[in-house]
Amino acid sequence: VNGLMTLGFAGARQQTELCNESLMLEKLPACGKSFEEMMKKVDSKKWCNLTEFIMYYDNFTQCTEREANNASCFWPNPLAEGFITGIHKQFFSNCTSEKVHWEDPPDEILITLILIPVMLTCAMITLVVWCSKRSDIL
């Protein structure tokens, strides 16, 4: 059985092709060109709003995946990622995520938020101690 399994794995290994990186790099720019043509339909002020071009981006991703697979390459791979990163820099370099600036609440609110759980904890401890000393009545 081990011999048959080894033979099966060896056969599977022989059937896999090596990644043709040059073919993939030759075909990927067509995906970028197609994406560029589709993005011309979108106002450049809306390029940071994903809902405006999500279908175009989906087509672009599927195209890069298809071309990588046609060249017997896995996807994503470092070369495809480099190409996709270039497209991102071309179209989305001005899209920055706004960071939320967190501030502490005013002191009155902060003190209240701290004291309420402390007081409840003290009240519960007092209740437990009182009930345990009065066990003869309860």
From TrEMBL:
Membrane topology of this protein: Single-pass type I membrane protein
Segments passing through the bilayer: 109-131
One term of GO molecular function: coreceptor activity
Major site of localization recorded for this protein: membrane
Gene Ontology cellular component list: cell surface; plasma membrane; receptor complex
Domain of life assignment: Eukaryota
Database matches in Pfam families: RAMP (PF04901)
GO biological process: calcium ion transport; cellular response to hormone stimulus; G protein-coupled receptor signaling pathway; intracellular protein transport; protein localization to plasma membrane; receptor internalization; regulation of G protein-coupled receptor signaling pathway
UniProtKB keywords: Cell membrane, Disulfide bond, Glycoprotein, Membrane, Receptor, Signal, Transmembrane, Transmembrane helix, Transport
Compartments where located: Cell membrane
PANTHER family listed in its UniProt record: RECEPTOR ACTIVITY MODIFYING PROTEIN RAMP, RECEPTOR ACTIVITY-MODIFYING PROTEIN 3
Family indicated by similarity: Belongs to the RAMP family.
Name of protein: Receptor activity-modifying protein 3
Organism: Platysteira castanea
UniProt gene name: Ramp3
